[in-house]
Amino acid sequence: MPRFIIERQFAEQLEVDDDAKLKIKEVNDEEGIEWIFSFLSADKRKTYCLYEAPDEDSIRKAAERLNIPADVITPVDRIDPGIFA
Description:
Blueprint: E1 3-9, H1 18-31, E2 34-40, E3 46-52, H2 56-66, E4 72-76
Helix pairs in contact: 1-2
Protein name: DUF4242 domain-containing protein
InterPro entries: SCO4226, SCO4226-like
Pfam families: SCO4226-like (PF14026)
């Protein structure tokens, strides 16, 4: 499945409670996408999230349903240090 990095900019500091986590999982499952992990900026206002998804539209639909930004969506390929060994 293709992978994407999603940059999200939040107006307020990001706080994700247990109910929000469940809702994110539910919507992502319905849209056929999987949240792999995220990096949170030190000021807790920006995230960089790695997702697997069939396409960018699926990511945008989930973000709209969750009322969260998806400011920049970039398709990515995985590389790791093993390729240099």
